[in-house]
Prior knowledge:
With 359 residues, the chain is an alpha+beta fold. The protein folds into 2 domains: 2-139 and 268-356, no CATH class; 147-239, SH3 type barrels (Roll). Helix content is 62%, strand content 19%. The chain contains 11 helices and 6 strands. Strands 1-2-3-4-5-6 form a 6-stranded antiparallel β-sheet. Strand 3 and strand 4 (183-196) form a beta hairpin. The mean pLDDT is 86.
Amino acid sequence: MLKRIDWYIIRKFITSFTFAIMAFVIIAVVIDISENIDRLVESGATVLEIIMGYYLPFCVFFGNLLSPFIIFLAVIWLTSIMSQRTEIVAILSGGVSYNRLLRPFGVIAVFMTLSILVASHFLVPFSNRIQFNFEGQYTRGVHHYSYNLHRELEPNKMYYFHHIDARKSSGYHFAIEDWENGSLKKKLFASKAHFDSITEQWQLFNTIERTYYENGREQLKILGDIDTTMALTFYDLDAPSELVFNMTTPELTEHIKKEERKGSGNVAALKLEKYMRTSNAFSILVLVFIAVPIASRKKRGGLGLHIFLAIILGIVYIFFSRMSSVAATNVGLAPAIAVWIPNILYLILGIFIYRRAPK
């Protein structure tokens, strides 16, 4: 009997969650179409390319973003309906303990947390990359330029671009300077540098190298077009900020290490993005732990009151998330701590609600 109850709750949750996520995503797609239909039509892309290259990644991103809140609403909805139908009272009266009743909800929470973890760290960045490439090809415009870029990724070695073209993964008027004890020892010039993201190699065109000696003499070498590897990658440049959201977590970790080595001011924001991919997924455990005790109590107002409480709690959770993010980027609070503050506060709230829940 207990297993039948478990599967009954799980099936009801799957139905509620699927309906809710599809409703929210469809609404988001309709709004986006109304805002961007002209731009998409004028892009010259086929309907299949628009669906696969733009709206499918859009749905993946939006669905993952809203999943914790929608799971919270789905559990509130399911538990409230069971409460109003006196199903929970019947289950508890049949000798099932309250903690045993929570087991299928725990299974749901753990499964959804693991799914969102995988999606946040790998699937969503990959999906974002597809959408980014589509926009670069059809809607964003022909070029995205940044000018006068300097990077020091290794001690005493400076990389310079006059400008880069993000869409082509190329930079122009490229130079590498090797310094020693404050003196320039060697400088390499190239009219163009193209980064191959597959091989992670650079193709340098019209390359020359100057070596400077202490007696004032110089040596010039004409190298022509060469392929080479460098500590520099295209992610180290001032390419569009969307590239960060296109990185899987291992790629983002390497990017953060490079930004730390060069003393970038974006490290806190990058770490927030990395840690939030985990904390947002684990928020499902906390929200489900809160949702069941709230909605399991039969009250006047029923489902409407429970949904209202869920929306209020969701808004307050977002508020705490924003406040902690601002504290991490502007006040100096450690990002690894900031992203977990809302979950810790809501866990404390969940324990309080659980203790007061009718058992």
